[in-house]
Batch of 2 targets.
Target 1
Amino acid sequence: MPVLLSIFLAAILTDNYILSKFLGICPFLGVSKKTNTALGMSVAVILVMTIATAVTWPIYNYVLAPNNLEYMETLAFILIIAALVQFVEILLKKFLPPIYNALGVYLPLITTNCAVLGVTMNVIEKGAADASFGYIESIVNAFGSGCGFLVAMIIFSGIRVKLEACDIPKSLKGLPITLVAAAILAVAFLGFQGMV
Amino acid sequence: MAKKSLLQEFTKGIIKENPVLCLVLGTCPTLAVTTSAANAIGMGVSATLVLLCSNITISLLRKVIPNKVRIPAFITIIAGFVSIVQMIVKAYAPSIDEALGVYLPLIVVNCIILGRAEMYASKNGVIASAVDGLGMGVGFTVALLCMGIIRELLGAGTIFGIPVTSNFMEPITIFILAPGGFFVFGMLIALANKLSGKCKKPEEIGCGSCPMKSKCHKNTEEGAVE
């Protein structure tokens, strides 16, 4: 149990996908203008990341690896994720309409989110390096990474609301100042290094 | 589409529509692999290769692929080429493969490639698409190389591994860490804005010509209206 907790915390703080691994920057910059859109997007990411890892891990270890098809990883994973996102969307629409209404618009965007593909490949790599990093650990890692995404998105949307009101030099307006703010936030997350 | 010479098609990707600095696409690899100039070139060349091949293939198949399933079809084609490039890099440049790590297969979800497929290759002829892909790829590589040189020089005091500033300056390590990536990228975009002033509006952050723009953009605009 303590191992799982440390995997979870490490995924949120030290290995934060946005601020230290640079995955999922597009949604980070694109939908972090408002806290409620940032929240919706992040919850959808957590959902898809966890389900995608739960599905791709057995496929890699029980279908691709025994047949020496490791090189098909990229192709197989992206197709699985794309199909999975569609499937989750249909299921939510049918059985959980309130959740669909809240998250529906974000789901199609997640197919091409590199954080989702990144996390599924990352756990495979970790599993190859360390045999004790199995299925449960992979799912906890994926869930933690999603939560790390949420934390970074929520903090950043708060910062951006404040930035709107500031007087910024003309050529720094918009994206550049946002990136500088992200740099300072990344310094803060650097402080967690070595903690877990 | 207005008729442009092939040279114009090529240079627009490098200067006027630079995918990284103007359209702000493909930010993830731009930030992640530019810790040294050599990595930046490895990433740039791999992505250019994929972009060129996928643009040619998609342009050839543009009349065959049904409109409804075009995005999954594009992703499959791109994923196929990424796997090929991945194997080539693994075989001939294992050090680059190690340095790029998971970011090499992640070329598959690079918005530049899907964006060009959707915006250009699916509407234009083969030669124009190939030139467009090459131009965009070179633009991407140039932007990555700028980032890589600046970060390597400031963060490690070297360029392509050759020591430069060892006599008069301590390396500022933070530039090759995550925060330095964000900072240098922000400053480069600010510089590009200042110099050209012709770039797209900064409001279209991160979504320049992302294929999913219509949904995403509508969604963020709704957020702005409330």
Note: Residues 82 and 111 of chain A are 5 Å apart (CA to CA).
Target 2
Amino acid sequence: MSALLQIEDLRVTFNTRYGPVTALDSVSLSVNAGETLGVVGESGCGKSITALSVMGLIPSPPGKIAGGAIRLAGEDLTQASEARMRALRGAEMAMIFQEPMTSLNPVFTVGDQIAEAIMLHQKVSADQAFRDAVALLDRVGIPSPDRRARDYPHQLSGGMRQRVMIAMAVSCRPRVLIADEPTTALDVTVQAQIFDLLNEIQRDFGAAIILITHDMGAISEMADRVAVMYAGRVIEQGRADDVLDLPQHPYTRGLISCIPALGKGEDTLREIPGVVPPLHMLGAGCAFADRCAHRAPRCDSEKPLLQAHGHHPVACHAVAEGRI
Amino acid sequence: MTPSYLLRRLFYGLLLMLGVVVLNFLLIRLAPGDPAVVIAGEMGGADEALLAAIRADYGLDKPVLTQLGIYIGNVLQGDLGQSFFFNQPVATLIGDRIGPTILLVLCAQVISILLGVFLGVIAARKPNGVLSGFVSVFATIGYAVPVFWTGIMLIILFASVFPIFPVEGMQSVRLRDAGFMIRALDVAHHLVLPAFTLALIYLAQYARLSRASMLEVLGSDYIRTARAKGASERSVLFKHALRNASLPILTVAGLQFGNLISGALLVETVFNWPGMGRLAFDSILRRDYPTIMGVLFFASAMVVVANLLTDLSYRLADPRLRGKS
């Protein structure tokens, strides 16, 4: 049986002033019902573009899905009409965004905004939808939800707003929930609460969650499987434990060694030297080569493909050749 | 929005009106010309004794500050004085003409906002599309062209080429005694050209402003959220985006109201619309001080009221401003 959501060889291009650039290149991911897939990588690696592609929200133009397929329970979303996508968005798949401060409309009450999501997909009266919204606010742990439902976003704290976003996203019990850096803008204590909430909701609703983050701690806490992305490609993929404990790709190793550990007596924070190359300047070889300690001539001339090695697939010549 | 806030705003409004009265009075006294000579001219003769009698009669022989004091005292009692030219109370003159002016100004305001915002929203949907380009060009032309020129061009167009709209006055003489509905339709028919002439310049501004404002709002995170929950494009545009984009439009609408009234002066003159604008224009030529001051007083009152309403509606539209003062 195939996965609930299956992304196959997805290629997304953007027209820029440097000409067309490939934001996603042969990205293949899948996630099953009740499972959490973590997607990690630095800013600009294509995590959010992947999420927006699934939702059909790539700004187009300039963006375009240039190849591949996104199958939700077998249905290819890249071929779906806009009307069909509207029916799926919010109902079958929903998204929680990074910026709770700006992701809610400032001129409507939060109750109305949740009720709107309900009424877009279910035949219920406005009163019933509002009552459902209050129940959802209660479910996501907002105290005195009756009163809070009549509040405007600016009257709520960041953590509360993210809870509202989660309530809105799960209001129609979507089968796929995409959380794009849901805790980046929040305090650490609130982060843990939000992750707990996402876990609970997954247990209740059985949704598949795609958790996009650059926080390896969040991955280890939340994800069943993880995909590491770099410059628009998936470079390593596997069970979260395997990837975290036995990272193979030099980039993944770098990411994990960058996590500061308490009590180890380290004075400086570790970092991966260099920056992600701009997408319009990607050459023929491995995009990570410039920053890699294991660079060989082949790395500059040939893109490594994702292939099984050890516990899980990785895209690295050095690993494939046994140099590391 | 608390009652105390409202009261404070009203108090400031009244203070502002008082300032306007004083400034109007002093400014008009600074203008060259002697009203006594004008009045005497209307009566046909002008020897010194007559001029002195006229000055004494109208209180023009007293020091300016004394005159100001008397005038303010009268205004506070609701007496705007007697027109030199018409020899009627100024309040009566204005009362007869303020209705048509308010009708014209409000119609122009509604037309320019509704049509302008609609064009702006449509243009913002496809910022690089043909319609968007058209709106930009139209807005630039509409903004650049003087209102009297537009009026004259429309008169030429509709008087000779397409005679479907009346180009002068507010009512047809032959329909004076018809039923209310017929007369209302007749007035509406007469209103079309002056209202559109007056609306055009502001329509262009609203189109530009709402296009820019919508473009900014459409790029914001909550619009993406609305799309992510499956809202239709129309709901995204007209519900989620427009409500936010309307905030700067409201501000400008309030500020423009004063300009609209001064624009009405020109339009009323061009289309012979029996409003306050023409009264002001004629009174300035005749140095009819009390009438000019009366017209300015009412125009300022309208602007003060419009600004107050703008402020209140702003608070209604943006919940973040409620409860603050």
Note: Chain A is about 35% helix and 25% strand.
